[in-house]
Amino acid sequence: RASNRGSVRARVTTAMARRWATWPLAVAWLLHALAAASDCFVGDADYKAPEQRTNLTVHGVSMPLGLVPCNWDSAFLFNSVAKILIQEKLGVHTNVTFTSSSSWSAFYAIGRCSRWTNGSDPGCGPPQDFALRHHVLLETWAANLVQDRDWFGVNHPQDQPVYCGEFSFTGYEGHFLRSSTNQRAVFTQGSHMDNYAFYNGSWYDPAQFFGTRIEDIPTDKLEPCAGENRLHNPSLMQPMKQLFDGLTLDPSGKAVCDPSGYWWLAPACSHNASKCVPWITGGDGWQVSMTMQRALAHSMPIAVAVAANWGSYLNITLTYDVTFYSWEPSLHFINAGPREVTFPLHSAEEWAVGDKRSMMKKIVLKNYVGKPIPQAAPAVHYLITSLDFPLSQVMAALKEVGEGVSYDQAACNWLNRTNIWKPWVQAMKCPSGEGMIDKSGTHKPGWKFVMNESQGEGCGQCEPGRYSAHYSQPAECVADEPCFESRVCRECPAGTAQVRFNQIECDVCLPGTYQNMTKQLHCLDCAVGSYSNSSGSHLCTHCGEGRESRENLATMKRVVVDGEERWAFRDGASDGASCGCTIGAWENGGVCQSCTDEMDCPGMGHIFIKPYYFSPADRPGYVFKCHGSSGHRCPGGLPGTCSKGRRNTSVACALCEPMMKAGSNGECETCAEGDYAPSILLVVVLLLGMVFFYRVVDVSKPAGTSSAVLMFAMAASLMVTMFQQLGVFGSINLQWQAPFSDVLDFLSIFTFDLEYLSLDCMGAIDPFAKYLLRVFMVILFVLIMVLIHIVSVLALYRGAFKERMPALVGSIGLVFSAFFISIVSSMTAPFMCLPHPNGMRTVRDYPDVLCFHGGTSSRHFGMVICAAVATLIPVGFLIGVVWVVWKLPEKLANGDTGFLITFRFLLFRFRPACYWHVCIFLVRNMLMAIIPAIGIQTAQILMLQCILLPYLAVTVRTMPLSLYMANCMDILASMMLCMLLIVFALFVEDSQVDAGSMATVCVVLLGLGLFGVIGGMVYAIFLRFLRRGKPFGYFICHHKLGAGNFARLLKVVFQQATQVKKKVFVDSDDLRDLSTLFDFVRSDTETLVVVCTKEIFMRPWCVGEVCTAQISDTRVVKVVFPAFEWPDQSFIDEYENNVPDVSSLASFGISVEMVQGCIRWLENQATVFFPLEVSNDTARQLLTILTKPGSLREGFKTTIVAQQESVAPIARTTTDSGGGRNFILADVGSIEAACAALVLHKLLMPIMNDPPIVLQSTDGLAATAKQICLICTTGAFRSALVVTSLALIAQRNLAVLPLVSETSFRFPTKDMFADICVSSHAVLASRGVDMSGEAFIRIVARVFKEIAIEFNPQDAEDILIMRSQAVHMRLKSSLLRPLHVDLSANAEAANEAMEMDMEVIYKYGVTVC
After folding, report:
1. C-alpha to C-alpha distance for 1133 and 843, rounded to whole angstroms
2. Which of 276, 290, 266, 165 is nearest to 216 (CA)?
3. Least CB-packed of 51, 775, 1087, 1158 within 10 Å?
4. Lowest-confidence segment of 429-433, 522-526, 778-782, 1137-1141 by average pLDDT
5. Does residue 24 have a pLDDT over 50?
6. Distance of alpha carbon 618 from its chain centroid, rounded?
7. Burial status of residue 491 (CB atoms within 10 A of its CB: 0-12, 13-18, 19 or more)
8. Burial class (CB in 10 A: 0-12, 13-18, 19+), 294
């Protein structure tokens, strides 16, 4: 609004600015006022002398009435008239507070604005203690003051100026000429120059009637065109150019003037300036654009110029015979007799686009008073409201002023010449529309209406709610007798009202309205639910009269909303036909009942059922909800409406018409020939699947099943289970959108929901019959499986039914365990009831069946009985499974692999240690299938989550499945289900989440789960058919105590050989789970190398590896040590007694009979006889044999012959002649010790330039030797090589690094030292070494003062590499010290030194342990 106020100031009309053109006018008016020495009405009876006059009290301050005259002559005259009447007739002091330069600043002043001259920020709404001293504003010319008054009403209603009417004449500004010129033209040629048509240069020569040409006017009285005026303003000229092509502008967009530079010549006379009629304006070019447009539009020969100043403007117009800009009423040009030139009537459309060729709009001249005046001075308010002058009298009075009379004297002269003003001050003679008032009252808008003349002090307009009635005293006036007549403002009686001022009667309330009170502004519309059918009603009639109940009744009417016709509440109803049931109610037996949320009751008793709901046509209030994704079958509408093809006599449109099937969007389609295909295809698939299941169970062997086949079977089983679980999830009553709803519909078949098979196309099948087929389908499966078994046994096994019974039990059990959720779900189907708004419940899968309704004769009761009987099937199966799990340990302890084979359908997925997990698996599935029967969505989701989360935790903790990837798939599937339940929880009924987004999230989660499972199946297929070979070329089967180091050596030799491309399996490196050991042999190994040592057949795991290799056709080769003897027949026959632990293999499907057979089978497999001495040469020979798999046929035998070691690079055979710096000393007579030395040697070769050389029994210690690595094994200090070498090492004072190679190795004790003392002396003597046993034990004691490194080849490979690097670092460093043993010390000193060394050894030994 501030910008509007700024625009108000910017839009001050030219008339305002031109009327107050000079301040001398204001000064003259004030001087005239001071010069009036006497009042106008002195001597009149009602004259109020100055001492009788009073001030006003405004905002608590006593002050005279403030007049705000605008700075133009007519405003001065009107203010003088008002001042005389207010002071001398009404007795109120007045003063001129200030003279305003414009209407808007005076308007802000009487609006109590503190900065009224600032148009952009007038300071309106100041504090309440800011008293208003400007009260009366007359003759405002600004038309937009109405907008400002409205702005006051919104922002400052307490200060809003009060409108007091307008003058009967209007203000006008425009084109004028002298009256004498016009008369001369009329008399001489009949040309009316006061009409624009006679200025058309094409027909007339208007210049002939004007005695002045443009050259007659001195240029010093004119403003140049290039001066600061509107001719020089491109922003005014360029828009005019767009309207009139005849306008010529210079390149800068300014008007082109004549050569003198002072006149713009219209095109009609631009060729001959003498034909131009001069037109003069003042200021900055008032209305120049208007005059130029008229000249262009009407071919007027006009020459336009702007006076240099106000004096020149007056001088030219009064001296020269020209046309000029002026306005009226006006004093300045009155002596020239100005006459308006008329143009076409005002066109608002043209002026709106800047086209000003038509007349200007007449300006209404309005009067205002300040907000407090009607209350503080009602008589003044009435006077200002009544103030009016005929224009002729105004001009006459102004003419007197022009002749030298003051404004006050001219006003007084006018008042004395006419009585027109007397009604303005006769307060008690009230005209029509008014009534007598008491100004002392406080009634809004400032007075109190009175009913007799004794209380009245004036007249006032009758306010809304009252009417002006005739009043006389006495009531009937008699001729020639005194009678006081006036009018009073009476209150409108009940049944009437009126909202306008100055009314002589009240409006009678029309039908549909009423008014029960007096003095009201409006008649009230009858409220909704009532009506009035007569005029002048005091009250309305309620719709419920005459009815049993008034509840839910309303008056309504039809309306159109967005092109749709609807009922809407109607107030002001004029007849009872508008009464009916309200919106949200429907009529039932003459009573309006509230509609439920499922009903749409638009009004007047009509009822529509919302989509996804249904009610019978004969019972509209009996509403069912159409649950599930097929809820589209209930499109809504009138009761009894179903989708196309649906029976509206069935419950919730559940059934299709005969020989029709459910289609898309809830509609039913006519059955076609191809609709039988799904059923036939399902039967064929089931039969083939059952045959396949049976055959797989029949031929599979637990010990011979590869990991790839097992992986595929687990993934397929997990997928079937996941589909059934999702089918259970689909039982949760949520309204899903596509595509997830379509997925759930399809997966419902995994819960044995046969609706997907279009059974309705086979004839009208009762829901009870469908349920019987569903619930006992498992019995049908069993019967078919029995038939398959009979045929298979007769055809393939010659009737060996007893022997083949495990195949029947396994195949039936496999069907039961795979579809356990579906079986249980079919049993619980009658208990999955969904609620309806009418309080009924229907079976979820059979929505036409009412739950627990109709007693024992109902279809639901029959379903419940069938379900109770059929429940024995899954319960019995679960009990059987518990019995199997309970009996399994006992059976396995007895080696009963037949029991395992019979029930392998339960256990094939699980690790032997987690066989019990099958119970958790089935209990989880049973509980998940039962949960949907609860019926409460939140409870279903919560309980399913409570089942899945613990199961997931147990799975993660125990990893129960036999394959690691299968555990990962199971965990991924469980996580996917848990996340789906979280999404389900967000989508429960009344949820505000986006259904489409949630459906997409569910599909993504399902896709992730399926991706994991299908990925597992693809990986299994890859392993089985597409993998190039097996990852392990060799699997070393060995007894750890007898050949653990040899197995390590063999693996190191294989790894360092270039001809071996694949990995070598050693359990210490590659085994993470003992239960997967046999699977490595079965699925991932090409050649099983059996290291035959004494105890090999005493180890069940070794025997199990051989049996697995036999069953899986894995190549086997024996490496026979010299001490190995093949078991005799009695050992094999009594194997179970000789090796009791063999029963532990039963959990892997390996029986004692299988073990006995595989031992006999192994005897004939390829055999390599290994010598007693282990060396690099023998290892290379073994490598050469094993890397030629073509020769390793059954019955192949060969012997490895040990040869003398060469000098380099493995060992030295010369004595004290050249060689390496580092050596390895070990008891090479022990195969395990020799293997440990060779393993260390081979691990150090890649990282050392001079790797230590292994000393053989025939080697001597080279002269270059500096550091010795001693392999510490049990019995090492009884070895001749070790004892002799240590003596030589001590004599040569070399450094020794002890390496502990056996976990059973113990540091020497006192007793052991005594034993070593005796045995070493004999060994040294036999070798010709002169050294006592006491000296040797000092050498041993000194060796163990060096910090030893543990180097056990049976540790994991990465540990061995780390230990070999530690050996390398010790050999490189200077920390390894020579022995420095004093071999010449006497016995006592030697014993004392040994005691000290023993203490160090014990302390170090404890630290190592």
Report:
1. 64
2. 276
3. 51
4. 429-433
5. no
6. 45
7. middle
8. buried
Distance CA 233, CA 253 (A): 8
638: number of Cβ within 10 Å: 12
Q: What are phi and psi of 1395, to 5 degrees?
A: -60, -45
Residue 934 three-state SS: helix
> How far is it, in rounded angstroms, from Cα 335 to Cα 945?
105
Q: How far apart are CA 391 and CA 903, in angstroms?
A: 123
Q: Nearest-5° angle of CA 254, CA 259, CA 261?
A: 55
Question: DSSP letter at 884?
Answer: H
Answer whether 415's CB lies under 8 Å from 408's CB: no
Indicate the DSSP class of residue 1024.
I
* Rounded distance between C-alpha atoms, residue 291 and residue 360, angstroms: 11
Output the pLDDT for position 176.
93
Which has the closest alpha carbon to 604: 578, 629, 575?
578
What is the token pair recorded at 1000? 């997409």
SS3 249: strand
Size of the chain, expressed as the number of residues it contains: 1409
3-state secondary structure 1237-1252: HHHHHHHHCCCCCCCC
CA distance 1089 to 1105: 10
pLDDT at 779: 83
Cis, peptide link before residue 329, omega less than 30° from 0: yes
Q: What is the 3-state secondary structure of 445-514?
A: CCCEECCCCCCCCEEEECCCCEEEEEEEECCCCCCCCCCEEEEEEEECCCCEECCCCCCCCCEECCCCEE
Q: Residue 1144: which H helix or E strand, with range?
A: none
Q: What is the DSSP letter of 100?
A: B
Question: What DSSP string describes 106-145?
Answer: HHHHHTT-TTTT-SS----S--TTS-----EEEEE--TTH
CA–CA dist 354, 296 (Å, integer): 14
Three-state DSSP string of 286-334 = CCHHHHHHHHHHCCCCEEEEEECCHHHHHHHHHHCCCEEEEEECCCCCH
Position 1076, amino acid: T
The tokens describing 418, both together, are 């006419």
The pTM for the full model equals: 0.53
Burial of 234 (0-12, 13-18, 19+ CB in 10 A): middle
Q: Compute the distance between CA of residue 362 and CA of residue 301 in angstroms, rounded to an integer.
A: 26
Query: Tokens 């309504």 appear where?
Result: 556
* Cα angle, residue 521 at apex, residues 518 and 527 outer, rounded to 5°: 85
The CA distance from 615 to 636, in Å, is: 9
Q: Let me know: does 1312 contact 1279? Beta carbons within 8 Å.
A: no
Q: Which class for 527: exposed (0-12), middle (13-18), buried (19 or more C-beta within 10 A)?
A: middle
Q: Does pLDDT of 655 surpass 90?
A: no
> What does the block give as tokens for 678?
């799904």
CA quadruple 818, 823, 824, 828: dihedral positive or negative?
Answer: positive
Q: Are strands 458-461 and 434-438 parallel, antiparallel or unpaired?
A: antiparallel
- pLDDT at position 1392 is 54
Write down the pLDDT at residue 467: 92
- Nearest Cα residue to 361 out of 140, 182, 141: 141
β 434-438/1166-1169 pair status: unpaired
The pLDDT tens digits of the residues spanning 1248-1278 come to 888 888 888 777 788 888 899 999 988 888 8
Question: How far, rounded to the nearest angstrom, does the alpha carbon of residue 953 sit from its chain's CA centroid?
Answer: 31
User: Which residue bears the tokens 């292994």?
Assistant: 1254
Burial class (CB in 10 A: 0-12, 13-18, 19+), 597: exposed
